[in-house]
Write the structure tokens for this entry.
Amino acid sequence: MRLVRRWKKRWRRFLFEQLASTVRRGELRPFKVDPEGVWFETAHGFAVLCNFEDHILELDVHPVWEEMETTFISNNVRAGDVFLDVGAYIGHFSMLAAQHQPARVLAFEPVPGTFDLLVRNIRHNKLGDIIEPVNMALGSRDRTAKSVCALGPKNHLEHTLDDDHADLATVEVRIGPLDGWLKDHAPLDRVDFIQVDIEGYEHEFLRGARQTIHSFRPMVLMEVEEYRLAKFAVTAEEVFGFMKEAGYEYLRVGPDEIVRGTCPEKDLSITRSFVFYTAQRHPVY
């Protein structure tokens, strides 16, 4: 017990020093404190709960998270749209999309602790009438699996080639195909935009969302990283091939520009973020 008290004291001292350092640099953003914690305002009209652990929208981080992706979503989500946030984490992109008066936002987050933060962020920002949080991962079939739960925005489903993370805490999560979940829980007559950031599990998601993609032709903002895909025995070529076969072209989302894609192999050496789109809906960028 004494050791725990000592650790908590040191942790509080560290947090105070971080806060003091931020104040000295003149970088402290507007915030409010309530019984749930410290809430920081973003640049987009919503606040996020600071959990002092994950490096996203926190004390020492710029208030714009993934700036090019954030700007793209802001420019391309329209009133009345249906927006799906796959790998929603604490809800940044879900809440961003909600600022543009979509008809509905579905936010899929499998890790229970992170899902709790997502729900609290939605409730705090009074967005419960727009955003529906769903505590599951999306893949190609119904099953359960272990997910790493100690890496914040880099949490991922376990895979066999995960030596670096072999000792990290895991939690059991539910996985299911998007097509089946929508049929059983939320029949829709449109899906306009899908944001996908699931740490290498993208191809499994696509396999389980084939009907949704072919029926509604949504714009898809997706992270694609070869080394993460390889841990699930998938190649980036398979991801780009899936989208090409479905009739999609793509944009390359770089750190300071968005341009037409040319060659997946070359573009993957430059960035990890891509926008896939069809002739039915041209992106604004």
